[in-house]
Amino acid sequence: MSTNSPSSNDSDAPRGPEPATAPPDAAGGMGAPAFSPLYQQIKALILQSLQAGEWKPGDMIPSEFDLAARFKVSQGTVRKAIDELATDNLLVRRQGKGTFVATHSEQHIQYRFLRLLPDTGQPDSQGPAERHIIECKRLRAPAEVARQLSLRTGDPVLQVRRVLAFGGIPTILEDLWLPGVAFKGLTQETLAEDKGPMYALFEAQFGVRMVRATEKLKAVSADDEIAGLLGVENGHPLLSVERLAFTYNDVPMELRRGLYRTDARHYHNELS
To answer: DSSP readout, 107-151?
Structure first.
């Protein structure tokens, strides 16, 4: 994950002692507990505004000066909170323009969630993946899916199955489960017609922004059905990747299980 937090041109004007407790939010309530560092409290309040949709993906947020006045803290405290949000890829600083809510339509954000890369060449050397949506159906959440998505067993979910191909070679078979209420109106036709990143679609049409994910990896072998969909022999070794993606404030919004061919690609991750 890259860290890009250029410093602001705004000066940190003195404001006197910082308050010892969390500043009130816009609704008049209190922020994070008083024992957390003040900049972390401001970060939490900014996250609340992002989650509430006050600033949407691609929008410019208020200046550090305006946010400092809003939260009654110094610009330096606001700057530190924004620096962390930029490091987390939730905000993007643009020199001379301001600070913007990050969006999945930006290339460097897209590649945060793209881990299967070609053994040779650049990540986009073969162009975008060719996507084939096998099915998109609504069903009641099985117990395990409901547990991971923090739903109740039987709550409505959307299940999507698709195959991604690179250079005409089927490479990834994915099954996704999405909360039915949050993704009401998502159809197989919508998924098939959209040519951008799936997370950008979720963001633009449903107001759901994936901000982080956890993954579990293990080696498996292809059964008859999977072998047919990926064009490999029965028993072919595959990499299984289970991802749970979260929106703001650690709300799970997608369970994704992928089976990856790695004969010409590898799983890449950066640890920092």
So the answer is: HHHHTTS--EEESSS-TTTT-SPEEEEEEEEEEEPPHHHHHHTT-
Tokens of 242: 């289970």
Amino acid letter, residue 20:
A
- Residues 235-246 pLDDT 10s: 999 999 999 999
3-state secondary structure of 89: coil
Cβ burial of 152 (10 Å; 0-12, 13-18, 19+) is exposed
- Hey, what are 173's tokens? 């078979």
pTM of the complete model: 0.70
Phi-psi region of 236 (alpha: psi -120 to 50; beta: other; left: phi over 0): beta
The kind and range of the H/E element at 160 are: strand 156-166
- Smallest Cα–Cα separation from 243: which of 228, 263, 227, 260? 260
